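Most newcomers find our protein records easier to grasp once they have seen one. The structure tokens are whole numbers drawn from a learned vocabulary of backbone shapes. The record below serves as our worked example for the rest of this section.
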Amino acid sequence: MSAQEIATQAPYVAPAGKTIAIVCLCGILYLWALMRRAISGRFDLYHISMLAVVVLLPMGFVVFPRFAHNLSQSIGVAFPFVLLFAALFVSMFLYMHRMTSELNRVIMRSRRLTQEIAILNAKIDSMGAGADGGASTPV
């Protein structure tokens, strides 16, 4: 059996009301916590949008199960949760890639600033040594 045949044979199953309620409640709480961090200035718009995707995708799949089922069938995936997992994986990969590049930028800037401080300290020491006739004082 091919993947397309399996995907067309996968039955549509609507989520239970309790499932929808729990996923939406957890999603709303998560988004509320995210917005509090955004208001306090701990996250920028990019981080908020990437972290919101983590909760909005599952909420969308639970609230609109028919759309998720039709989308997975049109792509040729047997079950919508596989498509959800792939979308979450891609979003987390993009977020981690961004965080890694930001971390690398901060490390390089810190290294450059440390080198500039060392050069300035050496200049200050050499200026102090010239004015004191060779005696230098610790900074």
Remarks:
- The CA atoms of residues 47 and 98 lie 9 Å apart.
- The two ends are 77 Å apart (CA to CA).
- DSSP finds five helices and no strands in the chain.
- The mean pLDDT is 85.
